[in-house]
Amino acid sequence: MGAVPSTPQRPQDTAEYLIGSFVGEKSFPLGSDFWQKLLELPLNLRWPTDRVQEACQLFAQNNCYTRHLAKILIHLAQCLQNSISTSGAPSPIYMKAVNAVYISSVFLKYLIENVQNNNSEDLYLSLDEREPVPEGFIIDLNIENVVMLNVLSFIGSVDVSTKTYLLHQELLNFMLVAMSTQLLYGLSPGLTDMNPFIDAAMVQESSLVSLVVRRLLLNYIVRPRIPLNSTSYPVFSEGSQPGVLQRVGSAAATFVFLPFNYLASSNGEAKRNTLADCSLHVLLILNYYHKCMVGDVSVTDRSDDSAASDAKANTYFSDNPYCKALENARDIEFDRVDIEGNTHNGSLVRLPFASLFDTLGACLGDETAVLLLYTLVIGNSDFLEYVLVRTDLDTLLMPILETLYNASKRTSNHIYILLIILLILSQDSSFNTSIHKMILRSVPWYQEHLLHQTSLGSLMVIILTRTVKYNLSKLRDLYLHTTCLATLANMAPQVHRLSAYASQRLVGLFYMLSRKYNKLAEKIDDKIGKNGSVQEGSLAEDMSAELHIYTDFLRIVLEILNAILTYALPRNPEVVYAIMHRQELFHPFKNHPRFNELIENIYMVLDFFNSRMDAHTKDGEWSVEKVLQLVIINCRSWRGEGMKMFTQLHFSYEQESHPEEFFTPYIWRLALTHCGFSFNPGTINLFPVDLSGEKLNDYGGKFDKHQNGQLDQHVQLDV
């Protein structure tokens, strides 16, 4: 028998026709076979960018009548239901889901970028009342709830495998697109903000939320990669040219460059993994989201202005279940009944803390990883405790210290977050003790001085003092000074065998700050000398305020030195030697009312050791080695009699009540940089964007080195 001739494809079955119909004027009913043909179609058209732009524009014009966005989202939910319920689902079921989420992402993104007056009602996420609903379709009045329920259910309940990898990736891309409505609004969440998809994510059951948080973190820890020899999905065209939907450009979906993005190696600090990156960004966006709500207070019989004023005064932020799930995550190694005998329900997120710790240590050159570490140590007491009892703290601390060493190559916010993490860790005395017990054979990335057999604690002192020096010359940020000095103050009582170089840098810190103090004092004297007094609002008044701040800084450094001399002098002969070597630095401040008591203690130590040196004047020339040996010997006989005891300084970090005002724009900037996700810069209100001819990062955006928003921090002295 002869071969069966192939059946020619009908025009209405071609990709050109189906995509054209999807964006066109004709509305296809939800039960039409048009949707099945569209979702089963290999999307391998090659349209130029202008045609894709035109398709998106047509879709935006016609969607209000066709409601095709709502319909394809319903089909997406249906496809995901089938994928979850069908165990070992065949490839066609997953491919329909991939196509549905892929097309939804492209056109949803364009609509979000082009909504009028930031009104997400222009997305038309509802069906016409007369729309017939086919049997088997469960239609909720709130389509975004149905979609997010099924998207999150698939992410949380279906393991990542070779077969499901692509769908997981596309669903994470969809999540970023759906949550990008945040980019349309200002820094502080307001009552008029409309984020339908992320709001829908917030109202899901706690058990599902826990599954999603766990899966996103496992994606980040495991960092799964699709094998190079895996099946080539037809949603991507073969050859060097991308298919129609990959050519959407900044108008719609530049994030879809798969498989080129995640099959290519990266030059990042840690090898980038698209699924891991997107999982972490989605998790952090969810974690820091807070919806502004108005309290249930009657405003009837009031004028409009009065009612609006009362409503604004009665606003609050809704609880965030993802934040709670992350805060309550527990180590998988512990039994469900914790050491205090408390039982926990089955929805608790359980994670391998050991693997998470190691993954963070390998990735801390990346800002998003630093944000995750900060989020965990500030919010999850179990994880913080786990970090503090690890014996290999260098796994986390070495990449943190190396990043601080290269501060000039980093954003200011990256530096701030790292310093706050160190401050949080330094609040624990066992941490401060253990870092001095760990000896590093070498520190190859430190170039100014050969660091051989130095303790991790000594390296931390070196880097913190170096960061203050860098800040004095470059950033000149007082919060950064405060955080560095607070960390050093917390460390001081437990300092043990501080190295010679670290001791010199610590005394040098007093020298650096005293120079700044003296210059300010001279300038103020010049101004007062000319005018006779400090005028309110004058430059002299500003300098006086700055002088007061540097007076506080100098006092903290003196208290750091005092804490070492009072509580740990016998264990730190190098600190004594460094103070003796630069003792002239302290003389100008002996009579200063803020410093005199602290300086007295330092001079008691100097007098003790200087007298021991004087007793050996007949021994000939003094060398560094001879002086140090004399100090070491006499440290053993030091009793500290007559030293004035000061209360140990202890600083703690307290996060502001609304951290989302800093973190939300920060995370979105990183998402736009690392997830291959672009957005029309002219519609971004979440942070300032340079609208000059320069592009926004590699995918269409350029950002300032300094992020938008201030990380308002409370570094407080515990009394």
Automatic annotation (TrEMBL):
Origin, by domain of life? Eukaryota
Keyword tags = Lipoprotein, Myristate
The protein's matches in InterPro entries, at most eight in alphabetical order, are given as: Dymeclin
- State one Pfam family annotation: Dymeclin
Q: Which family does it belong to?
A: Belongs to the dymeclin family.
Protein name (database record): Dymeclin
The record lists the organism as Hevea brasiliensis (Para rubber tree)
